[in-house]
Amino acid sequence: MPTNKDDNSVYIGRRPTNNYVLAAMMILNEGKECVIKARGRAISHAVDVAEVLKNRFMQNVDVKDIKITTEKLTGPDGKESNVSCIEITLAKRK
Amino acid sequence: MPTNKDDNSVYIGRRPTNNYVLAAMMILNEGKECVIKARGRAISHAVDVAEVLKNRFMQNVDVKDIKITTEKLTGPDGKESNVSCIEITLAKRK
Q: Which is nearest to B47 in space by CA: A93, A76, A54, A37?
């Protein structure tokens, strides 16, 4: 399941784009906003998911907000590293 | 030069992050807004550039706007493909 306990978030990993597009569509079709979240290299993939959804599957969906942030991750060796994150909020047009 | 004819844009490619951070700082220090642009896999890199600039070098800079779009590219074999793009607009806080 690409969704998590935040029940309107979709976390982007290494699965095929369409898996995440489908997960996001299910959330949007319940009338909720959907937040697509990704870190590091998956950020490009998150933008692909939002664009494919919007252009190919649901023309009545808009990008409502995009946020970028930095998170500190602690690796298995105890070293801290900074990783960039993105959150793309999608919503159906009223 | 990572900048192009749009003299307040920085196009992200494969060079080290700091090259682009420096190019963006020069534009911002002239009092202009700076637009960081990237396509495809470089999108993650563009977010890194914006975050490093903002968190490490210029604390008085805000993300003013983020746009995502899709461009149609025609490959050398004449095939069309869709590629996602990002434009991150940065501006000094007044």
A: A37
pLDDT tens-digit profile, chain B (94 residues): 454 456 899 999 999 999 999 999 999 999 999 999 999 999 999 999 999 999 999 999 999 999 999 999 998 999 999 999 999 999 999 8
Assign B59 to helix, strand or coil.
Answer: coil
pTM for this structure? 0.90
Flag whether residue A70 sits within 8 Å of chain B, measured between CB atoms: yes
Determine phi and psi for B41, rounding to 5 degrees: -65, -20
Which residue ranges form the domains of chain A, and what is each CATH number?
9-92 (3.30.110.20)
User: Chain B residues with CB inside 8 Å of A41's CB?
Assistant: 41, 44
This model of the complex carries an ipTM of 0.87
